[in-house]
Amino acid sequence: MSMITTTTFLSAALLLLVPGILTQASSYEPDSIQLMIVNSIANVPNVTYTTDVVFRGILLGAMRRLQETNTDFRFTYTEDPNYGPFLVSVNGLAGDNTEHTYWELLVKTSEGAIRPNVGIGCYIPQRNDIIILKFTIW
User: Fold this and answer.
1) What's the CATH number for 28-137?
2) pLDDT (tens digit per residue) in 83-128
3) Which of 55, 70, 119, 124 is most buried by its number of CB atoms within 10 A?
4) Is 67 helix (H, G, I), strand (E, B) or coil?
5) Cα(137)–Cα(83) distance, rounded to whole angstroms?
6) What is the number of other CB atoms lying within 10 angstroms of the CB of residue 106?
7) CB 85 within 8 A of CB 63
8) Which domain of life is it from (predicted)?
9) Which of 133, 109, 127 is closest to 56 using CA atoms?
10) What value does the CA radius of gyration of the chain take, rounded to a whole number of Å?
11) Distances from the Cα of 11 to the Cα of 15, 16, 17, 41, 88, angstroms
12) In 10 A of CB 73, how many CB atoms?
């Protein structure tokens, strides 16, 4: 038996031993979350959007989905080699190092508001979360 055949056979056997490995993620309906844009520096009203996140999907994916389906929502980010995606701007408003401004990620859950210890590329929203992107000063 060749090495490729053996590897293929073992891979197929593993899939049979772990039920649902191929269908688990696709069997769940997306969860609805809200994305609230808050500017704590300027006196402007908050804006709230609703979007979906797939089962165990990351916030960045939900934000991309929202941007693709709603022309009123835009964001940019940069990729830090050590920390991953870093939110730069929301709806045309960018953080600025000289003015000490940035976009803070907060989440209002059923237990209260939290500041996740991860960013938009790692945070996994839960059903009915209110994600708060807050423009603020550091």
Assistant:
1) 2.170.130.30
2) 899 999 999 999 999 999 999 999 998 888 999 999 999 999 998 8
3) 119
4) helix
5) 20
6) 16
7) no
8) Eukaryota
9) 127
10) 19
11) 6, 9, 10, 55, 41
12) 17
> pTM of the full predicted structure?
0.78
Q: How far apart are CA 77 and CA 133, in angstroms?
A: 13
Helix (H) or strand (E) holding 10: helix 3-17
The contacts of residue 124 (CB under 8 Å, 6+ apart) are 53, 56, 57, 58, 59
Q: Which amino acid is residue 36, in one-letter code?
A: M
Domain ranges of the chain: 28-137
* 3-state secondary structure (DSSP) of residue 69: helix
Residue pair 136/101 in contact by the 8 Å Cβ criterion: yes
